Fold these 2 entries.
Entry 1:
Amino acid sequence: MRAPLPTHHNVVVVGGGQAGLSASYHLRRHGIDHVVFEKNRIAHTWRSQRWDAFCLVTPNWQCLLPDFPYTGPEPRGFMPRDEIVAYVEAFARSIDAPIREGVAVTRIARGEEGFLVETSEGGVTADAVILAVSAYHVPNIPAMTANVPEGIVQIHSSAYKNPAQLPPGKVLVVGSGQSGCQIAEDLHLADRPVHLVVGSAPRCPRFYRGRDAVEWLDDLGQYEITVEEHPLGEKVRRNANHYLTGRGGGRDIDLRRFASEGMVLHGRLTGIENGRLEFGDDLARNLDAADAVYNGICGLIDRHIADKGISAPEGVHYSPVWQPGAAVHSLDLAAAGIASIVWSTGFRSDWSWVDLPFLDETGYPAHRRGVTNEDGLYVVGMPWLWTWGSGRFLSVGRDAGFVVDHLADRQITGRRRPPVRMAV
């Protein structure tokens, strides 16, 4: 039986993944009393919302949690799901995080002196709150799922585990971001016939000119570009991630090659009616755009090699191995033999439990580098919180350090800071 919940903490951290644990590390470094609430278990998302063959798409050497870098035998490898969970759990043990697993935070509001935090084990007060729950809270299920005929199995990508989970027959994967492409590949490698709905996500080379492209991009400083320096500004936070994989030691994901091997590709899904799928006329355009990003990255690396006089093997830019024929605008689910659909349509945010006016007009936390416009409220662990590496093991610890340093300075000065000016 664990100790009862104290009634007050200097800081409440919500979320027991790598972001919340990194915040805990830095709070301990400052000697600040705190608690970490995790409604499930440490590393819950890695544990429960990833498929069996899942592995990192970034190399292990980028796993740089505070004072806890990857030290295994394969720094250029890609940890599979269970090793990722073990890495996060080991980090929690190493810092002796004051985590309360199985405690859900149900409401956060202002109190007389700080914050009121309601949980499944009772209420506490806090001087400051760090929200370390990313921005991916609820599976995004399109309304058109209601029009899918009965008898066809439908699951969200977060619930997909392996090909054997789905009934015999063809599988439709909707969405070609990282998860959709990797799940389509997982099914394809298991000789399951796949239809894939292709969106606008870009792709990236895995290896180019003798090295992992991530290593080249790191040398180029791409992971250090801040939101304020990026040409898109805060809009970059809405960009889809590039698709590639760390599976089997790492490789490209080439949807055209999959198509040449029998996978059926479609343009964007625009509707479902009377058992028929309706597609947009954008398949060729989406494939071309993804390849253009791929070759653009190759070109960026080429220029870096030339400018620095680096000795490296010659590189070859991608040339399409397959071209789509006449666009298919409609497909009958029954006639096509599609027995299941995997909706790889991402997630949406749900901040309804935070009873504070900290969101912008789009429903995204208004913040600068994790410091929100609500004094004492912080966010960490979100994609592009500050840099491209913010949502990854690479930079989440540094982001947490900045947030906690700001918080510690606020407590030391004994005064409330004015809201941080938001970037335009």
Entry 2:
Amino acid sequence: MAVEKQVVIITEAAAFRIKEMMEHNEEQGAFLRVGVNGGGCSGLTYGMSFTTEKNDDDILDNQHGLEIVVAGEDAPILAGTKIDYKQSLMGGGFTIDNPNAIANCGCGTSFKAAARPAEPQPCE
């Protein structure tokens, strides 16, 4: 049975952009899945995707009208992580601030966390 709890913090700007992407991809009503995958030069990478499935161990949350799911095994690594969307003259993009990351790679796409050791991979 899924548990309701806040793991990640989605800013209003990020939620607005995610909802725009959902509409563009005709994914209204889907969950936003936030997770951690192995890979990158520091060992772990973030993942965000749309899904209609939720698993028994998922943690559910609703922020700014956005339904968010996080796998139970990823929750300790993502606890307190803030996801924002910033727009600049060069374009826009999501930023992720994870208080559990003990190191970030130079290219900015992967991180290392004490809670889940992972094997670093070559940068692409």
